[in-house]
Amino acid sequence: MSRGSLWCAGMFAFSAFLPSSLAADSLTDVFARMDRESQAFKTMTADLTDLVHTAIVNDDAIEYGSIKLKRDKPGDTRILLEFTRPDAKAVSVEGTQVKVYLPKANVVQVYDASSKRGALDKALLLGFGATSGDLKASYDITYVGAETVAGQPTDHIKLIPKPNNEARQMIQQADLWIGPAGLALQQRFATSASGDYRLATYSNMKVNASVSDKDLRIKTRPGVQINTVGK
């Protein structure tokens, strides 16, 4: 057995014999931190590293940029992602529309997400303002362990969507790495049974900084072309 395989086996054995009471206490602590943060959570900005893994070809596509998120009330979450490399791109989620701006082509692609809005709401707030009650109602949750993400201490929890959870349309499993402040410093979404996943890592996070509605709008160049996808 290789050294890497031996390490994995050892970690599996350790987790298998982790006392259930210790895991329960750790999960209770994570929930308490998330609930405290959710009471005041309105906005979040951060730098973002977004990795998309395609299992069939064992390929990782990585984009770097930033995120702005604002939640005025439950069910009203708006997001703007602005990627700078390797290629510039902006993605906004507002209401029932998802917009993708491709600066090189100067084109905005508009998608109607009304049929998946419930799923989007449940996925968007994972680790950002959702209460433990919200999560327990929609997911089966287990505590994985204490881990370090980009030098920060976190608690890793695993969430499996329940049968009645609309998020099952989009994700098979979600993993969250919750930091000391009760917010996700990293998220992994398993998007297919074949092993595809998306891994989002956040740094330089600022909570409840000023984020206006204008800040959440995609900035385009003059002459931009608007394409409504599916029409």
Description:
It is a single chain. The protein is of the alpha+beta class. It has one domain: outer membrane lipoprotein receptor (LolB), chain A (Clam). The protein is built from 4 helices and 12 strands; from the N terminus they run ααββββββααββββββ. A 12-stranded mixed β-sheet has the order 7-8-9-10-11-1-2-3-4-5-6-12. It is globular and about 55 Å long. The termini are far apart. The N terminus is likely disordered.
Architecture blueprint of SSEs:
Layout: H1 3-16, H2 20-40, E1 43-54, E2 59-73, E3 76-85, E4 89-94, E5 97-102, E6 107-112, H3 117-124, H4 132-138, E7 139-149, E8 152-161, E9 173-178, E10 184-190, E11 197-207, E12 225-228
Parallel strand pairs: 6-12
Antiparallel strand pairs: 1-2, 1-11, 2-3, 3-4, 4-5, 5-6, 7-8, 8-9, 9-10, 10-11
| Model regions low in confidence, pLDDT < 50 over at least 5 residues | 1-22
Structural class: alpha+beta
The H-level CATH homologous superfamily, spelled out, is Lipoprotein localisation LolA/LolB/LppX
How much strand?
over 45%
C-alpha Rg (nearest Å): 19 Å
Fraction of residues in helix: 10-25%
Give the tags.
231 residues; alpha+beta; outer membrane lipoprotein receptor (LolB), chain A; twelve-stranded mixed β-sheet; 45% strand; disordered N terminus
Task: Please outline what is shown here.
This protein is an alpha+beta fold and 231 residues long.
